[in-house]
Amino acid sequence: MTGTVRPDLAEFVRGLPKAELHLHLEGTLEPELKFRLAERNGIRLPERTVDEVRQTYRFHDLTSFLQVYYPAMEVLQQPRDFHDLAFEYLTRAHADGIRHVEMFFDPQAHTGRGVPFQSVISGYRSAIVQARRELGISAELIMCFLRDHSAEYAMATLMEALPYRDWIIGVGLDSDERGNPPRKFAAVFARARREGFLLTMHCDIDQPDSKEHIRQALEEIGVDRLDHGTNIVEDERLVELVRAKGIGLTCCPVSNSFVTAHMKSDEIVGLLDRDLLVTLNSDDPAYFGAYAADNYLALREQAGLAVDQLVRLARNSFRASWLTPARLDGYLREIDAYVAGG
Ligand code: ADE
Ligand code: ZN
Protein backbone atom coordinates (compact mmCIF):
# COMPACT_ATOMS: atom_id res chain seq x y z
CA MET A 1 0.00 0.00 0.00
CA THR A 2 2.86 2.41 0.74
CA GLY A 3 4.33 1.87 -2.78
CA THR A 4 6.75 4.66 -3.59
CA VAL A 5 6.46 6.44 -0.24
CA ARG A 6 9.87 7.07 1.35
CA PRO A 7 10.49 4.79 4.36
CA ASP A 8 11.26 7.77 6.60
CA LEU A 9 7.93 9.39 5.63
CA ALA A 10 6.05 6.15 6.30
CA GLU A 11 7.73 5.97 9.71
CA PHE A 12 6.84 9.63 10.38
CA VAL A 13 3.17 8.99 9.57
CA ARG A 14 3.01 5.83 11.69
CA GLY A 15 4.53 7.65 14.67
CA LEU A 16 2.33 10.73 14.25
CA PRO A 17 -0.32 10.74 17.04
CA LYS A 18 -3.70 10.20 15.39
CA ALA A 19 -7.33 9.47 16.23
CA GLU A 20 -9.52 7.13 14.20
CA LEU A 21 -13.19 8.10 13.92
CA HIS A 22 -14.56 5.86 11.18
CA LEU A 23 -13.86 2.24 11.92
CA HIS A 24 -16.32 -0.66 11.87
CA LEU A 25 -15.23 -3.26 14.43
CA GLU A 26 -16.85 -5.97 12.31
CA GLY A 27 -14.75 -4.67 9.40
CA THR A 28 -11.54 -5.56 11.26
CA LEU A 29 -12.15 -9.33 11.02
CA GLU A 30 -8.95 -10.62 9.42
CA PRO A 31 -9.17 -14.07 7.77
CA GLU A 32 -6.71 -15.58 10.30
CA LEU A 33 -8.97 -14.61 13.22
CA LYS A 34 -12.02 -15.75 11.25
CA PHE A 35 -10.52 -19.26 11.05
CA ARG A 36 -9.64 -19.28 14.76
CA LEU A 37 -13.16 -18.22 15.77
CA ALA A 38 -14.75 -20.72 13.36
CA GLU A 39 -12.75 -23.49 15.01
CA ARG A 40 -13.62 -22.24 18.51
CA ASN A 41 -17.32 -22.26 17.66
CA GLY A 42 -17.42 -25.45 15.57
CA ILE A 43 -18.31 -23.65 12.33
CA ARG A 44 -17.27 -25.09 8.95
CA LEU A 45 -16.28 -22.32 6.55
CA PRO A 46 -16.60 -22.74 2.78
CA GLU A 47 -13.02 -21.46 2.31
CA ARG A 48 -9.99 -23.53 3.37
CA THR A 49 -7.20 -20.91 3.36
CA VAL A 50 -6.58 -17.23 4.05
CA ASP A 51 -5.99 -16.71 0.32
CA GLU A 52 -9.30 -18.33 -0.55
CA VAL A 53 -11.05 -15.94 1.86
CA ARG A 54 -9.29 -12.94 0.30
CA GLN A 55 -10.31 -14.12 -3.17
CA THR A 56 -13.93 -13.52 -2.17
CA TYR A 57 -13.12 -9.81 -1.63
CA ARG A 58 -14.29 -8.62 -5.05
CA PHE A 59 -16.23 -5.42 -4.48
CA HIS A 60 -17.34 -2.86 -7.04
CA ASP A 61 -19.83 -0.94 -4.90
CA LEU A 62 -21.21 -0.74 -1.37
CA THR A 63 -23.83 -3.45 -1.98
CA SER A 64 -21.32 -6.02 -3.26
CA PHE A 65 -19.09 -5.27 -0.25
CA LEU A 66 -21.96 -5.74 2.21
CA GLN A 67 -22.83 -9.09 0.61
CA VAL A 68 -19.42 -10.42 1.70
CA TYR A 69 -19.25 -8.48 4.98
CA TYR A 70 -22.39 -9.68 6.80
CA PRO A 71 -22.10 -13.48 6.23
CA ALA A 72 -18.51 -13.41 7.57
CA MET A 73 -19.84 -12.35 10.99
CA GLU A 74 -21.34 -15.78 11.70
CA VAL A 75 -18.08 -16.76 13.45
CA LEU A 76 -18.75 -14.11 16.12
CA GLN A 77 -20.84 -15.88 18.74
CA GLN A 78 -19.60 -15.49 22.33
CA PRO A 79 -18.44 -12.46 24.36
CA ARG A 80 -14.80 -13.56 24.03
CA ASP A 81 -15.08 -13.59 20.21
CA PHE A 82 -16.12 -9.92 20.26
CA HIS A 83 -13.37 -9.24 22.79
CA ASP A 84 -10.70 -10.84 20.60
CA LEU A 85 -11.89 -8.98 17.50
CA ALA A 86 -11.72 -5.59 19.23
CA PHE A 87 -8.49 -6.31 21.10
CA GLU A 88 -6.66 -7.39 17.92
CA TYR A 89 -7.81 -4.21 16.17
CA LEU A 90 -6.78 -2.00 19.11
CA THR A 91 -3.36 -3.65 19.19
CA ARG A 92 -2.84 -2.92 15.48
CA ALA A 93 -4.17 0.61 15.83
CA HIS A 94 -1.81 1.28 18.72
CA ALA A 95 1.15 0.13 16.59
CA ASP A 96 -0.10 2.51 13.88
CA GLY A 97 0.12 5.62 16.09
CA ILE A 98 -3.60 5.73 16.96
CA ARG A 99 -4.08 7.22 20.45
CA HIS A 100 -7.87 7.42 20.50
CA VAL A 101 -10.57 5.65 18.49
CA GLU A 102 -14.35 6.02 18.24
CA MET A 103 -15.46 2.65 16.83
CA PHE A 104 -18.71 1.62 15.18
CA PHE A 105 -20.43 -1.64 15.96
CA ASP A 106 -23.55 -3.15 14.37
CA PRO A 107 -25.56 -4.92 17.12
CA GLN A 108 -28.38 -5.85 14.73
CA ALA A 109 -25.97 -7.86 12.58
CA HIS A 110 -25.63 -10.12 15.62
CA THR A 111 -28.97 -9.93 17.46
CA GLY A 112 -30.66 -10.62 14.11
CA ARG A 113 -29.01 -14.08 14.08
CA GLY A 114 -29.71 -14.85 17.73
CA VAL A 115 -26.59 -13.50 19.49
CA PRO A 116 -27.63 -11.56 22.63
CA PHE A 117 -26.90 -7.80 22.71
CA GLN A 118 -25.20 -8.39 26.08
CA SER A 119 -22.65 -10.80 24.49
CA VAL A 120 -21.69 -8.23 21.87
CA ILE A 121 -21.30 -5.23 24.13
CA SER A 122 -19.66 -7.03 27.05
CA GLY A 123 -17.00 -8.49 24.74
CA TYR A 124 -16.25 -5.15 23.11
CA ARG A 125 -16.22 -3.35 26.46
CA SER A 126 -13.77 -5.76 28.09
CA ALA A 127 -11.37 -5.31 25.14
CA ILE A 128 -11.56 -1.52 25.52
CA VAL A 129 -10.77 -1.73 29.23
CA GLN A 130 -7.86 -4.15 28.65
CA ALA A 131 -6.42 -2.06 25.80
CA ARG A 132 -6.60 1.10 27.89
CA ARG A 133 -4.78 -0.62 30.74
CA GLU A 134 -2.15 -2.53 28.74
CA LEU A 135 -1.55 -0.30 25.72
CA GLY A 136 -2.69 3.14 26.86
CA ILE A 137 -4.98 3.52 23.82
CA SER A 138 -8.36 5.13 24.49
CA ALA A 139 -11.51 3.87 22.77
CA GLU A 140 -15.23 4.61 22.67
CA LEU A 141 -18.15 2.76 21.05
CA ILE A 142 -20.64 4.19 18.54
CA MET A 143 -23.70 1.99 18.02
CA CYS A 144 -24.89 1.95 14.41
CA PHE A 145 -28.39 1.11 13.22
CA LEU A 146 -28.74 -0.83 9.97
CA ARG A 147 -30.56 1.56 7.63
CA ASP A 148 -31.85 -1.23 5.36
CA HIS A 149 -33.93 -2.52 8.29
CA SER A 150 -36.98 -0.82 9.80
CA ALA A 151 -37.03 2.26 12.03
CA GLU A 152 -39.00 0.19 14.58
CA TYR A 153 -36.17 -2.35 14.82
CA ALA A 154 -33.68 0.50 15.24
CA MET A 155 -35.80 1.99 18.05
CA ALA A 156 -36.01 -1.40 19.78
CA THR A 157 -32.20 -1.68 19.53
CA LEU A 158 -31.82 1.78 21.05
CA MET A 159 -34.04 0.69 23.97
CA GLU A 160 -31.96 -2.47 24.40
CA ALA A 161 -28.82 -0.33 24.62
CA LEU A 162 -30.07 2.01 27.35
CA PRO A 163 -28.79 -0.11 30.28
CA TYR A 164 -25.32 0.23 28.71
CA ARG A 165 -25.64 3.98 28.15
CA ASP A 166 -22.28 4.75 29.80
CA TRP A 167 -20.42 2.37 27.46
CA ILE A 168 -21.70 3.99 24.24
CA ILE A 169 -20.73 7.54 23.31
CA GLY A 170 -22.95 7.99 20.28
CA VAL A 171 -25.13 6.43 17.62
CA GLY A 172 -24.65 6.15 13.86
CA LEU A 173 -26.34 4.79 10.74
CA ASP A 174 -24.75 2.42 8.24
CA SER A 175 -25.41 -0.38 5.70
CA ASP A 176 -27.15 0.03 2.34
CA GLU A 177 -28.08 3.68 1.73
CA ARG A 178 -30.15 3.25 -1.44
CA GLY A 179 -33.76 4.09 -0.63
CA ASN A 180 -32.93 4.48 3.10
CA PRO A 181 -32.66 8.23 3.77
CA PRO A 182 -31.71 9.76 7.14
CA ARG A 183 -35.31 10.99 7.52
CA LYS A 184 -36.50 7.37 7.90
CA PHE A 185 -34.74 7.35 11.31
CA ALA A 186 -35.65 10.86 12.51
CA ALA A 187 -37.59 9.65 15.57
CA VAL A 188 -34.83 7.19 16.55
CA PHE A 189 -32.13 9.85 16.37
CA ALA A 190 -34.29 12.38 18.23
CA ARG A 191 -34.76 9.85 21.05
CA ALA A 192 -31.04 9.02 21.03
CA ARG A 193 -30.25 12.72 21.37
CA ARG A 194 -32.65 13.00 24.33
CA GLU A 195 -30.91 10.03 25.96
CA GLY A 196 -27.60 11.91 25.72
CA PHE A 197 -25.94 10.15 22.76
CA LEU A 198 -23.93 12.12 20.22
CA LEU A 199 -25.05 11.64 16.62
CA THR A 200 -23.26 10.69 13.44
CA MET A 201 -24.41 9.07 10.22
CA HIS A 202 -23.03 7.54 7.04
CA CYS A 203 -23.58 9.59 3.90
CA ASP A 204 -21.75 7.19 1.61
CA ILE A 205 -19.93 8.15 -1.57
CA ASP A 206 -21.88 8.72 -4.81
CA GLN A 207 -25.20 7.33 -3.64
CA PRO A 208 -28.34 7.95 -5.74
CA ASP A 209 -29.50 10.80 -3.45
CA SER A 210 -26.22 11.75 -1.79
CA LYS A 211 -26.79 15.51 -1.63
CA GLU A 212 -30.34 15.26 -0.31
CA HIS A 213 -29.28 12.68 2.29
CA ILE A 214 -26.48 14.97 3.47
CA ARG A 215 -28.92 17.88 3.70
CA GLN A 216 -31.34 15.77 5.78
CA ALA A 217 -28.53 14.59 8.08
CA LEU A 218 -27.42 18.18 8.69
CA GLU A 219 -30.72 20.06 8.77
CA GLU A 220 -33.35 17.52 9.86
CA ILE A 221 -31.38 15.13 12.07
CA GLY A 222 -28.80 17.63 13.33
CA VAL A 223 -25.81 15.29 13.31
CA ASP A 224 -22.62 16.17 15.19
CA ARG A 225 -20.43 14.54 12.53
CA LEU A 226 -20.75 13.08 9.02
CA ASP A 227 -19.27 9.75 7.91
CA HIS A 228 -17.86 10.11 4.38
CA GLY A 229 -20.00 13.05 3.19
CA THR A 230 -17.53 14.20 0.51
CA ASN A 231 -20.37 14.68 -1.99
CA ILE A 232 -20.88 18.09 -0.34
CA VAL A 233 -18.40 19.32 -2.98
CA GLU A 234 -21.29 19.26 -5.48
CA ASP A 235 -23.27 21.89 -3.57
CA GLU A 236 -21.66 25.04 -2.21
CA ARG A 237 -24.52 25.53 0.25
CA LEU A 238 -23.71 22.16 1.88
CA VAL A 239 -20.02 23.06 2.09
CA GLU A 240 -20.90 26.29 3.88
CA LEU A 241 -23.35 24.48 6.18
CA VAL A 242 -20.69 21.95 7.20
CA ARG A 243 -18.20 24.74 7.77
CA ALA A 244 -20.66 26.90 9.75
CA LYS A 245 -21.65 24.02 12.03
CA GLY A 246 -18.02 22.89 12.48
CA ILE A 247 -18.96 19.37 11.37
CA GLY A 248 -16.13 16.82 11.01
CA LEU A 249 -16.04 14.62 7.91
CA THR A 250 -14.69 11.09 8.40
CA CYS A 251 -13.20 10.27 4.99
CA CYS A 252 -11.86 6.85 4.03
CA PRO A 253 -9.77 7.12 0.84
CA VAL A 254 -8.82 3.45 0.38
CA SER A 255 -12.39 2.30 1.12
CA ASN A 256 -13.60 4.81 -1.49
CA SER A 257 -11.39 3.17 -4.10
CA PHE A 258 -13.13 -0.17 -3.45
CA VAL A 259 -16.75 0.95 -3.42
CA THR A 260 -16.37 3.53 -6.23
CA ALA A 261 -13.84 3.89 -9.04
CA HIS A 262 -11.77 6.48 -7.12
CA MET A 263 -10.15 7.39 -3.83
CA LYS A 264 -11.86 10.80 -4.18
CA SER A 265 -8.51 12.40 -3.43
CA ASP A 266 -9.28 15.69 -5.25
CA GLU A 267 -12.48 16.10 -3.25
CA ILE A 268 -10.83 15.20 0.09
CA VAL A 269 -7.78 17.41 -0.40
CA GLY A 270 -9.90 20.24 -1.83
CA LEU A 271 -12.03 20.26 1.33
CA LEU A 272 -8.95 20.06 3.55
CA ASP A 273 -7.40 23.02 1.76
CA ARG A 274 -10.60 24.98 2.29
CA ASP A 275 -10.09 24.42 6.03
CA LEU A 276 -12.94 22.00 6.57
CA LEU A 277 -12.61 19.48 9.38
CA VAL A 278 -11.52 16.60 7.13
CA THR A 279 -10.20 13.41 8.77
CA LEU A 280 -8.73 10.17 7.35
CA ASN A 281 -9.82 6.72 8.51
CA SER A 282 -9.78 3.06 7.50
CA ASP A 283 -13.52 2.09 7.53
CA ASP A 284 -13.22 -1.72 7.15
CA PRO A 285 -9.45 -2.29 7.16
CA ALA A 286 -9.46 -6.10 7.03
CA TYR A 287 -11.46 -5.97 3.80
CA PHE A 288 -9.77 -3.00 2.13
CA GLY A 289 -6.23 -4.01 3.16
CA ALA A 290 -5.34 -0.67 4.73
CA TYR A 291 -5.28 0.48 8.37
CA ALA A 292 -5.22 4.13 9.44
CA ALA A 293 -1.63 5.08 8.58
CA ASP A 294 -1.96 3.28 5.22
CA ASN A 295 -4.82 5.65 4.40
CA TYR A 296 -2.66 8.72 5.10
CA LEU A 297 0.12 7.26 2.94
CA ALA A 298 -2.22 6.21 0.13
CA LEU A 299 -3.74 9.68 -0.07
CA ARG A 300 -0.29 11.22 0.10
CA GLU A 301 0.86 9.08 -2.80
CA GLN A 302 -2.21 9.79 -4.90
CA ALA A 303 -2.48 13.53 -4.21
CA GLY A 304 1.12 14.45 -3.40
CA LEU A 305 0.30 15.75 0.09
CA ALA A 306 2.94 17.84 1.86
CA VAL A 307 4.02 17.02 5.41
CA ASP A 308 2.09 19.98 6.83
CA GLN A 309 -1.11 18.64 5.24
CA LEU A 310 -0.51 15.22 6.83
CA VAL A 311 -0.03 16.91 10.20
CA ARG A 312 -3.19 18.97 9.69
CA LEU A 313 -5.13 15.74 9.02
CA ALA A 314 -3.80 14.27 12.27
CA ARG A 315 -4.77 17.42 14.19
CA ASN A 316 -8.23 17.32 12.60
CA SER A 317 -8.69 13.69 13.69
CA PHE A 318 -8.61 14.87 17.32
CA ARG A 319 -10.47 18.13 16.70
CA ALA A 320 -13.38 16.23 15.09
CA SER A 321 -13.45 13.64 17.90
CA TRP A 322 -15.76 13.63 20.90
CA LEU A 323 -12.93 14.03 23.41
CA THR A 324 -13.26 16.54 26.27
CA PRO A 325 -11.46 19.88 25.65
CA ALA A 326 -8.75 19.01 28.18
CA ARG A 327 -7.94 15.67 26.55
CA LEU A 328 -8.11 17.21 23.07
CA ASP A 329 -5.59 19.78 24.20
CA GLY A 330 -3.27 17.09 25.49
CA TYR A 331 -3.28 15.18 22.19
CA LEU A 332 -2.73 18.36 20.14
CA ARG A 333 0.27 19.15 22.33
CA GLU A 334 1.58 15.62 21.70
CA ILE A 335 1.42 16.29 17.96
CA ASP A 336 3.28 19.60 18.39
CA ALA A 337 6.01 17.84 20.38
CA TYR A 338 6.26 15.03 17.82
CA VAL A 339 6.56 17.44 14.88
CA ALA A 340 9.14 19.50 16.76
CA GLY A 341 11.08 16.24 17.19
CA GLY A 342 10.67 16.18 20.96
N1 ADE B 1 -20.82 -1.04 7.03
C1 ADE B 1 -19.51 -1.29 7.08
N2 ADE B 1 -18.84 -0.41 6.30
C2 ADE B 1 -19.76 0.40 5.75
C3 ADE B 1 -19.70 1.52 4.87
N3 ADE B 1 -18.55 1.99 4.42
N4 ADE B 1 -20.84 2.09 4.51
C4 ADE B 1 -22.01 1.64 4.99
N5 ADE B 1 -22.13 0.63 5.82
C5 ADE B 1 -21.01 0.00 6.20
ZN1 ZN C 1 -18.20 3.12 7.20
Residue share in β-strands = 5-15%
Report the top-level CATH class: Alpha Beta
**Poorly predicted parts:** none
**Molecules bound to protein:** adenine, zinc ion
Major beta-sheet overview: 5 strands, parallel
Give the secondary structure arrangement, pairings included:
Elements: H1 7-15, E1 18-20, H2 31-40, H3 50-55, H4 62-72, H5 79-95, E2 98-105, H6 108-111, H7 117-135, E3 138-146, H8 151-161, E4 168-174, H9 186-194, E5 198-199, E6 202-203, H10 210-221, E7 225-228, H11 236-245, E8 248-251, H12 253-259, H13 265-273, E9 277-280, H14 285-288, H15 292-303, H16 307-319, H17 325-339
Parallel strand pairs: 1-2, 2-3, 3-4, 4-5, 6-7, 7-8, 8-9
Helix pairs in contact: 5-7, 8-9, 16-17
Bound molecules: adenine and zinc ion.
Structural notes for this entry:
This protein is α/β, with parallel strands linked by helices and about 350 residues long. It has one domain (about 5-30, about 80-335): Alpha-Beta Barrel (TIM Barrel), CATH 3.20.20. The chain is about 50% helix and about 15% strand. The chain is built from 17 helices and nine strands. The chain has helices at about 5-15, 30-40, 50-55, 60-70, 80-95, 110, 115-135, 150-160, 185-195, 210-220, 235-245, 255-260, 265-275, 285-290, 290-305, 305-320, 325-340; strands at about 20, 100-105, 140-145, 170-175, 200, 200-205, 225-230, 250, 275-280. The strands form two sheets. Strands 1-2-3-4-5 form a five-stranded parallel beta sheet. The protein has a four-stranded parallel beta sheet with strand order 6-7-8-9. α5 (about 80-95) runs parallel beside α7 (about 115-135), α8 packs parallel to α9 and α16 (about 305-320) packs antiparallel against α17. The protein is globular. The model has no long low-confidence stretch (mean pLDDT about 95). It binds adenine (ADE) and zinc ion.
